[in-house]
Amino acid sequence: MKALTWHGRGDIRCETVPDPTIQDGRDAIIKVKACAICGSDLHLMGGFVPTMESGDVLGHECMGEVVEVGRDNTTLKVGDRVVVPFTICCGECRQCRWGNWSCCERTNPNAAMQAEQFGYATAGLFGYSHITGGFPGGQAEYLRVPYADVGPMKIPDGISDEQALFLSDIFPTGYMAAENCDIKGGETIAVWGCGPVGLFAIKSCFLLGAARVFAVDDVPERLALAKAAGAEVLNHADGNVQEMLLEATQGKGPDAVIEAVGLESHGAETVVQKVASAVLSHTVSLERPFALNQAILACRPGGIVSMPGVYVGPVGPLMLGAFMNKGLTLKTGQTHMLRYMEPLLKRIQAGEIDPTFLITHRSTDLEDGPKLYDTFREKKDGCVKVVFHPNG
């Protein structure tokens, strides 16, 4: 089968790889009908995530049709149309029973490797390095789904492949980010990063009852989509974001902030941060918290910082003093997908949201993958979201 594979920093290829096979009785094999490039895939492309190996199949946003089912899987049958969450969950461990699906204790076969870095293992992930299990991803014609009697959700008639696709990751991720802001109704929220997760976070804030949402970015196409979603847009290239937010809120500031950028953010540093970065860069590789620092500074005292942006290792100079002295609360984590997939499907069915609003580029041929990865990374041709239909 064709698949998009990783071969080093900036080296994404479309190659022929072996078809997946049933390896456990709970498995299923799906024929991928739609898959997408996620912003966090760019961290892999950039070489920021350790334990990637040459030839690893990428992708963790996909849906498709079941073509084979393991003998112990009575939940699915051949012909079912399903969306596959990016987290792999057993459904039986204590974390799964608690509803902390992304913290599943059993599904990462490389648990010891991950525990060396994080202290404990968390759920296995599709297409996202060997530290999260080394599972082949879904930017391919076919995908093996472990524990397929737990994760995949059947898609009802009337919901298109593309409408279902983003229930695999970015819609629930944006929604959890908004839910973490503890919105009761009438709040002001500021969102850093108007990529796909940030855009879904904006939409979700309004679904949950926020009165105002500010969107911070500098990409015109993203800001246009944020504005169309109801946000008040701030281009951080136009000036000091903190000053713009204070002026727009009569000095009160946002009640909660969402950092949807992650480890590759760009921006200006304070003098202290510049000095610390220069000193530390000689001893340790640091991820860049520019957006996170802006968000911490902007959040009103006693507020919430919600962080769906992905970080992997040590972070550069962080405004921990501002965070502590203002009494802020941080809420973060990989998305607990099974909490959100069905409720958000119902919102789609009710017409409250059409998740396809952010798709800008489509292809029926994975051979276009390397070029579209570059287009997405460089934000060329107005690219916001890329979707493939590998089987036509």
Structural notes for this entry:
There is one protein chain. The chain is an alpha/beta fold. The chain has 13 helices and 18 strands. Strands 3, 5, 6, 9, 10, 17 and 18 form a 7-stranded mixed β-sheet that branches. α7 (220-228) links the parallel β12 and β13. α5 (170-179) crosses α6 and α5 (170-179) crosses α12 (337-349). The longest helix is centred in the C-terminal third of the chain and has 13 residues, at 337-349. The protein is globular and about 60 Å long. The two termini are 14 Å apart. Mean pLDDT is 94; it is low at 268-273 and 275-284.
Question: What is this structure's SSE topology?
Answer:
Blueprint: E1 2-6, E2 12-16, E3 28-36, H1 41-45, E4 56-57, E5 62-69, E6 81-84, E7 87-88, H2 94-98, H3 111-118, E8 124-125, E9 142-145, E10 153-154, H4 161-165, H5 170-179, E11 188-192, H6 196-207, E12 212-217, H7 220-228, E13 232-235, H8 241-248, E14 256-259, H9 271-280, H10 290-298, E15 304-307, H11 320-325, E16 329-332, H12 337-349, E17 361-363, H13 369-377, E18 386-388
Helix pairs in contact: 5-6, 5-12
List descriptors.
392 residues, alpha/beta, 7-stranded mixed β-sheet, 28% helix, globular
Brief synopsis:
The chain has 392 residues and is α/β, with parallel strands linked by helices. The protein has helices at 41-45, 94-98, 111-118, 161-165, 170-179, 196-207, 220-228, 241-248, 271-280, 290-298, 320-325, 337-349, 369-377; strands at 2-6, 12-16, 28-36, 56-57, 62-69, 81-84, 87-88, 124-125, 142-145, 153-154, 188-192, 212-217, 232-235, 256-259, 304-307, 329-332, 361-363, 386-388. Strands 3, 5, 6, 9, 10, 17 and 18 form a seven-stranded mixed β-sheet that branches.
